[in-house]
C-alpha cells in the first residue's frame, strides 16, 4: 500500500479546509467593498514627471494684513524671518528627500531630489504635506520668536509645484528668487527709510522711488537716510538657504545630521561647488570645517 493511499483521507480532509478558507477569504474581500467605492475613479493621476527636480513654493496668503495686525517691524522683522526658517527646518526634519530650501520675506521654496519617490511622486500629496507641516510649525513656534505678541489668528500659505528638468533650470529658478530678494528688500529698505527716518508719507516715498534703478535707490538711502545698503544684514539682502550637513559636535563622539541656515550668494558657482552633493544626488557631506558657534538645527528624525 502506497503512502498516498494510506493518507488519502487525511489529504482530502485538509484539502476541504483549504478550499473553505479560500472561499471565506474571497468573500471577505468582496464584502469589504461597497457600492460607493466607484467614486475613487474620479481621482486624477497627478504623478510628477520622472527625473525632474520637484520644487514646492509656499507664499504667505494676505500677509500684508497679517504683518500689520501683528505689528511686524519695518522694513524687516528678524524674528519673523527666523520663524520662517524654523518652520522650513521642520519640513526638512520630517521629509528627508527635501535636499535644499530657500526662503525670503513670506515665501519658502523646497527642492526635492530629482530621484525622489516620496508619496510615489504624487504632486498633491507632496505639496499638501509640505504646506501642512510648514503652516503648523509656524503656529507652533510662534511664541518662541514673538514672546510678547499674541497670535491673533492663524496664518495661511498658498502653494504651487513646479518641475525643472535640468540642473541649470533649478539653479536659474533659485537665482531668480534670490535676485527677487535683493530687488524687493532694496526697495523696502529705501521706502521705509524715507517714511520712518525722514518722516515722509507713504505716497511721498513712493513718488520719490518710482522709476529709480538700484544705484539710485542706494544713493537715496545713503544721502537721505545715512544708510549703506551693503551694511544691512545678509539675511535681509540674500535670504536664507537651508542645506543638510554632517558635523561633529565637540560634546558628541558621533556625527550629527544637521540643517544649516546660510545667508550667502547662490547665483554664482561657489555655492554649488562647495555643496556639490546637492546636484550630484550624493549622500550628506561631512563638514570638517564646522564652527561650533555657527547656527544649526539638529535633525532628530534622521
UniProtKB/TrEMBL annotation:
Biological process GO annotation list?
Answer: tRNA modification
Can you name this protein?
tRNA(His) guanylyltransferase
Q: Does tRNA processing count among this protein's keywords?
A: yes
- Every tRNAHis guanylyltransferase catalytic domain range: 36-165
A Pfam family matched in the record: Thg1
* Binding-site positions, Mg(2+) 2: 59, 106
Name the positions where Mg(2+) 1 binds.
Answer: 59-60, 106
What is the protein's known function?
Answer: Adds a GMP to the 5'-end of tRNA(His) after transcription and RNase P cleavage. This step is essential for proper recognition of the tRNA and for the fidelity of protein synthesis. Also functions as a guanyl-nucleotide exchange factor/GEF for the MFN1 and MFN2 mitofusins thereby regulating mitochondrial fusion. By regulating both mitochondrial dynamics and bioenergetic function, it contributes to cell survival following oxidative stress.
The molecular function terms of the Gene Ontology recorded here are: GTP binding; magnesium ion binding; tRNA guanylyltransferase activity
EC number(s) given by UniProt: 2.7.7.79
Q: Where is the Thg1 C-terminal domain?
A: 168-250
Q: Which UniProt keywords apply?
A: GTP-binding, Magnesium, Metal-binding, Nucleotide-binding, Nucleotidyltransferase, Transferase, tRNA processing
UniProt-annotated binding residues for GTP? 59-64, 105-106
UniProt lists the family membership as follows:
Belongs to the tRNA(His) guanylyltransferase family.
Cofactor binding comment, as recorded: Binds 2 magnesium ions per subunit.
Q: Which gene produces this protein?
A: THG1L
Amino acid at each position: 500500500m502506497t503512502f498516498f493511499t494510506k493518507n488519502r483521507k487525511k489529504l482530502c480532509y485538509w484539502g476541504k479546509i483549504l478550499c473553505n478558507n479560500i472561499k471565506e477569504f474571497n468573500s471577505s474581500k468582496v464584502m469589504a467593498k461597497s457600492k460607493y467605492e466607484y467614486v475613487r475613479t474620479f481621482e486624477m493621476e497627478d504623478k510628477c514627471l520622472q527625473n525632474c527636480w520637484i520644487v514646492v513654493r509656499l507664499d504667505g496668503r494676505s500677509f500684508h494684513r497679517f504683518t500689520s495686525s501683528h505689528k511686524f517691524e519695518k522694513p524687516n522683522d528678524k524674528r519673523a524671518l527666523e520663524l520662517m526658517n524654523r518652520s522650513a527646518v521642520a519640513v526638512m526634519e520630517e521629509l528627508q528627500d527635501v535636499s535644499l530650501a530657500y526662503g525670503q520675506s513670506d515665501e519658502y521654496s523646497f527642492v526635492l531630489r530629482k530621484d525622489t519617490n516620496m508619496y510615489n511622486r504624487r504632486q498633491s500629496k507632496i505639496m499638501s504635506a509640505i504646506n501642512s507641516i510648514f503652516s503648523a510649525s509656524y503656529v507652533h513656534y510662534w511664541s518662541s520668536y514673538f514672546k510678547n505678541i499674541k497670535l491673533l489668528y492663524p496664518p495661511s500659505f498658498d502653494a504651487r509645484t513646479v518641475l525643472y528638468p535640468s540642473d541649470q533650470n533649478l539653479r536659474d529658478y533659485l537665482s531668480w528668487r534670490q535676485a527677487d530678494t535683493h530687488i524687493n528688500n532694496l526697495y523696502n529698505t529705501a521706502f521705509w527709510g524715507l517714511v520712518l527716518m525722514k518722516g515722509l508719507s507713504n505716497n511721498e516715498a513712493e513718488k520719490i522711488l518710482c522709476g529709480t534703478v538700484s544705484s539710485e535707490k542706494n544713493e537715496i538711502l545713503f544721502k537721505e537716510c545715512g544708510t549703506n545698503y551693503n551694511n544691512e544684514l545678509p539675511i535681509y539682502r540674500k535670504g536664507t538657504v537651508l542645506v543638510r550637513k554632517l558635523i561633529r559636535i565637540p560634546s558628541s563622539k558621533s556625527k550629527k545630521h544637521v540643517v544649516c541656515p546660510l545667508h550667502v550668494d547662490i547665483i554664482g558657482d561657489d555655492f554649488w561647488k562647495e555643496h556639490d552633493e546637492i546636484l550630484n544626488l550624493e549622500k550628506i557631506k561631512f563638514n570638517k570645517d564646522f564652527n561650533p558657534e555657527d547656527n544649526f538645527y539638529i535633525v532628530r528624525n534622521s
